[in-house]
């Protein structure tokens, strides 16, 4: 077996139970065109290939690429791209993948998520379904509802851009080498949000500001963009307690607040 490299954040999944859960969540069909990020030694790749029309695997580690080419040389539906996923134009990938199934490197989770689903100002709807193995804390933040301790700016942005579902926990012992944290399988289904903000750039700004100091009330965190008395009145008009904190607002409430503040 190849030696995992710390510089690439490599922790390879070895649990058949976790692999089965990922595949069941992906709901793969024979016509599907899949993108896998960081296939490593191909433990997930080998299970995806028989179920899909095509699989494009993006791997940055040149030594792993040698092994992947040898392992899947006879697989006509397999394409390997040796590159950094963050520098690739995904729309130009071979076979135009429309779903993602991957155990992604945890040290670049945030930029990968933005690469796959975009931002509030620049949403990306290239993929129908995205099934990822991520750090458990990130999985909780992606899917957290208002008033939950894990609710964050990431929660709001991600849930604006996609339906986000927490599938299951995956213990650290399911990996080699064993990481210091537990993991989770999540499923993201990108779609336009039902409500369209008048000023997406302003919405993105106040979400960022609102969570800068989590224990502060929202009216204190947003005082640079709005007088506290005015914000209090706006919150009251929305039937929201003026003592509210950022983590207490839903995506719809953030959009309404943004529209009222920028109107």
Give a description of the structure.
With 263 residues, the protein is an alpha/beta fold. It has two domains: 6-190, 3-Layer(aba) Sandwich (Rossmann fold), CATH 3.40.50.150; 200-262, Orthogonal Bundle (Helicase, Ruva Protein, domain 3). Helices cover 33% and strands 19% of the residues. It has ten helices and nine strands. The strands form two sheets. The protein has a seven-stranded mixed beta sheet with strand order 4-3-2-5-6-9-7, sandwiched between helices. It is elongated and about 70 Å long. The N and C termini lie far apart (59 Å).
Write the layout of secondary structure elements.
Layout: E1 12-13, H1 16-26, E2 33-37, H2 45-48, E3 54-59, H3 62-71, E4 78-82, E5 99-103, H4 109-117, E6 129-135, H5 136-143, H6 153-161, E7 162-170, E8 175-176, E9 183-190, H7 200-210, H8 218-221, H9 228-237, H10 251-262
Parallel strand pairs: 2-3, 2-5, 3-4, 5-6
Antiparallel strand pairs: 1-8, 6-9, 7-9
Summed up, what is this model?
Helices cover 33% and strands 19% of the residues. By secondary structure, it is an alpha/beta fold.
């Amino acid at each position: 077996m190849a030696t995992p490299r710390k510089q690439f954040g490599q922790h390879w999944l070895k649990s058949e139970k976790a692999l089965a859960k990922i595949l069941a969540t992906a709901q793969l069909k024979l016509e599907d065109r899949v993108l896998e990020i960081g296939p490593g030694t191909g433990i997930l790749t080998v299970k995806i290939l028989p179920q899909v029309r095509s699989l494009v695997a993006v791997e940055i580690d040149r030594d792993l690429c040698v092994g992947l080419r040898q392992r899947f040389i006879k697989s006509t539906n397999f394409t390997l791209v040796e590159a950094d996923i963050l520098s690739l134009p995904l729309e130009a990938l071979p076979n135009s993948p429309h779903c993602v199934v991957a155990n992604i490197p945890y040290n670049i989770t945030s930029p990968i998520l933005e690469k796959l689903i975009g931002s509030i100002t620049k949403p990306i709807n290239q993929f129908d379904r995205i099934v990822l193995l991520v750090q458990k804390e990130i999985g909780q933040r992606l899917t957290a509802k208002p008033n939950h301790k894990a609710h964050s700016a990431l929660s709001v942005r991600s849930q604006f851009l996609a339906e986000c579902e927490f599938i299951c926990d995956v213990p650290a012992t399911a990996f080699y080498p064993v990481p210091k944290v537990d993991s989770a399988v999540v499923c993201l289904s990108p779609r336009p949000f039902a409500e369209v903000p008048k000023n997406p750039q302003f919405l993105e700004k106040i979400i960022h500001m609102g969570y800068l100091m989590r224990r502060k009330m929202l009216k204190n965190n947003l005082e640079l963009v709005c007088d506290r008395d005015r914000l209090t009145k706006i919150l009251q008009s929305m039937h929201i307690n003026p003592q509210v904190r950022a983590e207490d607002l839903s995506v719809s409430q953030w959009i309404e607040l943004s529209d009222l503040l920028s109107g």
